[in-house]
């Protein structure tokens, strides 16, 4: 344990759910790392859609998690708890956390940290864990995406969309995305999408079928749900896999089970935040071995939108909710 740490820190919290303006700075004790934990002096924190949903009161933190928003951070390990790898002390890392990222100090499990190479800006490092863990698990583990297959991703210029595009291309997939305007479609193509569909002007079902010679997409990464689900299935291939990771368009869907059966399609979905630490540790290990080298050598770099100071977290949320961002939004906490 380091003995030069301050007793208090600044964090961004809220008293009652509401709009972006409910986020406010507060002074809290610096947390102490427990068994298997490390304390990270935060450089940057990623801003994600679940943070917004939590602020609105619809995504409470799981038991034992910090009520402070923030699911991914970068920074320097300044203290370690019993059982955490001692070599992590003083290392620059990025980490997936269950909460607490919007603060000057944040706890993480040691096994949920990834080493940040010297060539990687800390702002970029903070923009990686949440989308990388989510996409890797859902596209490649739950969706069983394989080289040569076609992946359909909605929200092509979001943090998840850009990460799914880059990982998909790196592992030999054809990637089709949907976006809300022509500018975003062009941005998605620059990221690597093989086809970007303006869903406000074109029927994405017909466009996917046309691009795949009527075969359809093998895997759909769905963040919309609602009435998109049947449309996704309609443009999904035989033996295709439909993976839901968010319900931005509504939690309920009506589907034609006869169609699903005739095409032998599979539907699944997941959330990551409440999964056991052991599961996330195994996921981190697989990512470290198979995907992280692509980030270490710069083959994949997160698409960055804007940075906001920690105390302007509310403005960062408003920017995300406006829907004009392309790529990741991060908070500057104590840039290194």
UniProtKB/TrEMBL annotation:
<protein>
    <submittedName>
        <fullName>NAD(P)H-quinone oxidoreductase</fullName>
    </submittedName>
</protein>
<keyword id="KW-0521">NADP</keyword>
<keyword id="KW-0560">Oxidoreductase</keyword>
<dbReference type="Pfam" id="PF00107">
    <property type="entry name" value="ADH_zinc_N"/>
</dbReference>
<dbReference type="InterPro" id="IPR011032">
    <property type="entry name" value="GroES-like_sf"/>
</dbReference>
<dbReference type="Pfam" id="PF08240">
    <property type="entry name" value="ADH_N"/>
</dbReference>
<dbReference type="InterPro" id="IPR014189">
    <property type="entry name" value="Quinone_OxRdtase_PIG3"/>
</dbReference>
<dbReference type="InterPro" id="IPR020843">
    <property type="entry name" value="ER"/>
</dbReference>
<dbReference type="InterPro" id="IPR036291">
    <property type="entry name" value="NAD(P)-bd_dom_sf"/>
</dbReference>
<feature type="domain" description="Enoyl reductase (ER)">
    <location>
        <begin position="18"/>
        <end position="331"/>
    </location>
</feature>
<dbReference type="InterPro" id="IPR013154">
    <property type="entry name" value="ADH-like_N"/>
</dbReference>
<dbReference type="InterPro" id="IPR013149">
    <property type="entry name" value="ADH-like_C"/>
</dbReference>
């Amino acid at each position: 344990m380091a003995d030069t740490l301050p007793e208090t820190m600044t964090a961004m919290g809220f008293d009652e759910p509401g709009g972006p303006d409910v986020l406010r700075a507060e002074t809290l004790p610096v947390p102490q790392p427990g068994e298997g934990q490390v304390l990270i002096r935060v450089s940057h924190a990623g801003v994600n859609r679940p943070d917004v949903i939590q602020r609105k009161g619809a995504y409470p933190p799981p038991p034992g998690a910090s009520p402070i928003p923030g699911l991914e951070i970068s920074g320097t390990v300044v203290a370690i708890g019993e059982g955490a790898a001692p070599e992590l002390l003083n290392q620059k890392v990025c980490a997936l956390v269950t909460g607490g990222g919007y603060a000057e100090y944040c706890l993480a499990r040691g096994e949920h940290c990834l080493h940040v190479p010297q060539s990687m800006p800390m702002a970029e490092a903070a923009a990686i864990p949440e989308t990388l863990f989510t996409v890797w698990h859902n596209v490649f583990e739950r969706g069983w995406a394989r080289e040569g297959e076609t992946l359909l991703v909605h929200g092509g210029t979001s943090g998840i969309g850009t990460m799914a595009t880059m990982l998909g291309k790196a592992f030999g997939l054809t990637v089709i995305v949907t976006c809300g305007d022509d500018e975003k479609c062009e941005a998605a193509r620059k990221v690597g999408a093989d086809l970007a569909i303006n869903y406000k002007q074109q029927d994405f079902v017909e466009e996917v079928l046309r691009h795949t010679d009527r075969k359809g997409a093998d895997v759909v990464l769905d963040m919309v749900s609602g009435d998109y689900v049947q449309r996704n299935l309609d443009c999904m291939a035989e033996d295709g896999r439909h993976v839901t990771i968010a319900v931005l368009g509504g939690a309920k869907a009506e589907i034609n089970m006869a169609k699903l059966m005739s095409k032998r399609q599979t539907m699944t979905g997941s959330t990551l935040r409440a999964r056991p630490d052991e599961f996330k540790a195994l996921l981190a290990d697989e990512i470290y071995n198979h995907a992280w080298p692509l980030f270490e050598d710069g083959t994949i770099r997160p698409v960055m939108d804007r940075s906001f100071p920690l105390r302007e977290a509310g403005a960062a949320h408003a920017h995300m909710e406006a829907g004009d961002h392309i790529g990741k939004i991060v908070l500057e906490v104590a840039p290194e």
